[in-house]
Amino acid sequence: MQIIPVILSGGSGSRLWPLSREQHPKQYLPLVGNNTMLQETLLRLKGLDNLAEPVIICNSSHRFMVAEQLKQIDINNPTVLLEPVGKNTAPAIAAAAIYTINSAQDKEDQILLVLSADHLIEDISSFYSAIDSATKHATNGKLVTFGIVPVDANTGYGYIHKGEALNDAFTIKEFVEKPNQKDAKSFLNSGDYLWNSGMFMFKPGVFIGELFLFDSGMASLVDLSIKNASSDLDFFRLDSDSFSQINAESIDYAVMEKTDKAVVVPLNANWHDIGSWSALYDISKKDENNNVIKGDVVAEQTSNSYIYASNKMIATLGIDNLVIIDTPDATLIASKDKSQELKVVIKRLIQENRYEQKLHRKVYRPWGWYDSLESGSNFQVKRLHINPGAKLSLQAHQKRAEHWVVIKGKALVTCNDKDFILKENQSTYIPKNSKHRIENCKDSALEIVEVQSGEYFGEDDIIRFDDKYGRN
Which of the listed residues 241, 273, 305 is the one where a domain comes to its end? Predict the structure, then answer.
């Protein structure tokens, strides 16, 4: 039986702001090691037998970041499904299931292993044992979810009430929403409840059959979004018209709470859902003062705190129980006990249309990245890093001119009908309305300082005439 990992990678990770942002959320960050959360999710599966290439479901704006991170860990033939809009877990999983059914040669010889891209699982051996148990039940037509054996009375997770024992699994009496503290303690003491992990195993056909039974409208629209999908380079873009009509529902509400095929396999593998700064603090290594220190930090009379310095020194004196997260363009200072409530800050940033909610100062693009160094009245300065063999789109701007200075590498520049080479310490001027492009045709990185001058510098002042990455 072939196991196909389905990785749900569409979340925004707003509770880990300002490190996690809409255009670069937590699953694409190295929060607990050298690899990103998405990479860790895939790497921990490497020891499984009969493992197929993964199916990744992500937001369209993250597609090049996903492709690059998969390439870095030698996953060269993934399927990347692009959601035009987030509709919660049920439509995303249904899209993966229908795509798999349509693509498979043997429709009975496949099981989906559905995982979130932002979980941490430390006991891999126990994780594999649970997958072995789940595979047996899924092979027999069950919809399996993994229930985490609780270690405390946590109010941040939903719970699963275990029913009849089935050797290494249980039937499910009910799914319970996030409880209050009193109920959570009661659940823990009873031993009859598990945390709802949001991880699943089942045959794709069984899941789709149940979805058609309980929500035929959703199932039909997802099916239509697959039939009308389009290829976009190495990505599979779901049809926006049909997918956008779907009601946003979780897989629990759409199927698992209604089906008689659901079972739960207990998982005791040191599992963590890294959903907040306090959760990340809990699992991180602490110093003698119970602090988690990342970066250049001078901490005096400081205890029980998480302090992250990304690009400059942070000094603290006489503080306790704080989260301090410093990035080049935004700093968070919060009580650790309040870090779960960051949504109120995010809501205000959205209301005020602050770019810091969506973007970092350093923005990744399919060709590399740029860092906005400075801006003011009628000017903006950026540092561009262009990967070997990459090139920007052929474009023009109506409201700004640009000055380019090569600080590393060699650039092939197009400006209107001229193509020419710029070497280190050489520069050129790109007037308004000129068709222009930068290309790195060497096997080493190209870096350019770009000085923009004009009345407007937004990304929407880009008219693209040609782009190797298929952007409009």
Answer: 273
Beta-carbon contacts of 232 under 8 Å, excluding residues fewer than 6 positions away, are: 63, 82, 470
- The verdict on residue 349 lying in a domain is no
In this structure, the answer to whether residues 371 and 330 fall within a common structural domain is no
Tens-place pLDDT, residues 138-191: 999 999 999 999 999 999 899 999 999 998 999 999 999 999 999 999 999 999
Beta bridge partners of residue 159, listed in sequence order: 176, 195
**What are the residues whose beta carbons fall under 8 Å from the beta carbon of 218, sequence distance 6 or more?**
90, 91, 94, 211, 246, 247, 249, 254
Shortest CA distance to 225 belongs to which of 89, 83, 102, 112?
83
Overall residue count recorded for the chain in this entry: 472
Residues 186 and 116 occupy one common structural domain: yes
8 Å CB contact between 436 and 391: no
CA dist 269 and 272 (Å) reads: 9
- What's the structural domain count of the chain? 3
For the chain, the first-to-last Cα distance in angstroms comes to 41
* Domain match, 177 and 80 both: yes
Tell me: do 43 and 140 sit in the same domain.
yes
Task: Tell me the C-alpha to C-alpha distance, in Å, between residue 450 and each of 385, 416, 446.
Answer: 11, 18, 13
Taking the C-alpha atoms of residue 455 and residue 472, their distance in angstroms, rounded to an integer, is 23
Q: Domain span at residue 328?
A: 283-341
**Residues 163 and 89 grouped into a single domain:** yes
Location of structure tokens 């907040």: 276
The first and second tokens of residue 45, run together, are 């599966």
The kind and range of the H/E element at 112 are: strand 110-116
Report residue 290 as tokens.
Answer: 């119970």
Say what the pTM is: 0.89
Helices (H) and strands (E) in the chain, counts: 11, 30
